[in-house]
Specification:
single chain; 153 residues; alpha/beta; Alpha/beta knot; six-stranded parallel sheet; 4 helices
Length: 153
């Protein structure tokens, strides 16, 4: 099963869009606190609220707890600082795609600890980043493509 991890997401609309993607592809969504919003917030209704009941959501109290529990799993940390493209990485049966907060990405300590598992989405030079929900969709569909889109029609 594909798992999508948002570490300290800040924007509820992005989380809603990611939840919609997770529902559509059958992925689990992991939300790592602190978050810049509450799941009960009315803001979630603007993007994907009608999909929240169709996605399995797991919350983590902090990044340390998440990485301690899943550090041995097939993690792919998405960062603009990686040399390897997300399309060059091999995705097995149970990949974990990890994305950082919108304003700063993933903390350097996680990127250093899992340097061999960092990947980037190619984009034009000099630009900072894609929107978080777009990056999640790109990563998810590459992993699913490599698995021949299991369970999808």
């Amino acid at each position: 099963m594909l798992s999508i991890v948002l570490v300290e997401p800040e924007i509820p609309q992005n989380a809603g869009n990611v939840a919609r993607t997770c529902a559509c592809v059958g992925a689990q969504l992991h939300l790592v606190e602190p978050m810049g919003f509450r799941l009960t917030s009315k803001q979630l209704g603007r993007a994907g609220c009608d999909y929240w009941d169709k996605v399995e959501v797991r919350r983590w109290p902090c990044a340390e707890a998440f990485f301690e529990a899943h550090g041995a799993d097939e993690l792919r940390l998405f960062t603009g600082a990686a040399a390897r493209s997300h399309a060059e990485a091999a995705y097995g049966d149970a990949p974990w795609l990890v994305f950082g907060r919108e304003s700063r990405g993933l903390d350097e300590r996680w990127l250093a600890r899992f340097a061999d598992r960092c990947v980037r989405i190619p984009m034009a030079a000099g630009l900072r980043s894609l929107n978080l929900s777009n990056a999640v969709a790109i990563g998810a569909y590459e992993a699913l493509r490599q698995q021949n889109f299991p369970g999808l029609v």
